[in-house]
Write a structure and sequence with these properties.
With about 90 residues, the protein is mostly helical. It has one domain. It contains 3 helices and 2 strands, in the order ααβαβ. Strands 1-2 form a two-stranded parallel sheet. α3 links the parallel β1 and β2 (about 90). The protein is globular.
């Protein structure tokens, strides 16, 4: 069953995909990913995001604008402060 949060994200994503490529990342510890016993600090979660960006080739001229809310804001702050050259912008 889809949560309210998932419905809101899906509705916003539907509008964004008209003009942008939109990728959703399931963070560690959230279904359907496995539950990790550690690694929930903002820097660790941010490193997970950077790994996904690398795997998608979203680097250099293809730097993304990252969008998130709640704890994702902490992740985005970590990325922006440690690796500002990796992103075109942050929205949280």
């Amino acid at each position: 069953m889809e949560s309210v949060r998932e419905r809101i994200i899906a509705a916003r994503s539907a509008k964004l995909i008209e003009r942008y490529h939109v990728y959703g990342i399931t963070r560690r510890g959230f279904a359907p990913s496995s539950i990790a016993t550690s690694g929930y600090l903002a820097d660790s979660l941010a490193d997970d995001v950077l790994t996904v960006l690398d795997s998608l080739g979203l680097t250099g001229a293809r730097r993304p604008v990252l969008v998130g809310h709640s704890i994702a804001g902490e992740e985005l702050s970590s990325i922006g402060s440690r690796y500002p050259e990796r992103v075109a912008g942050l929205v949280y």
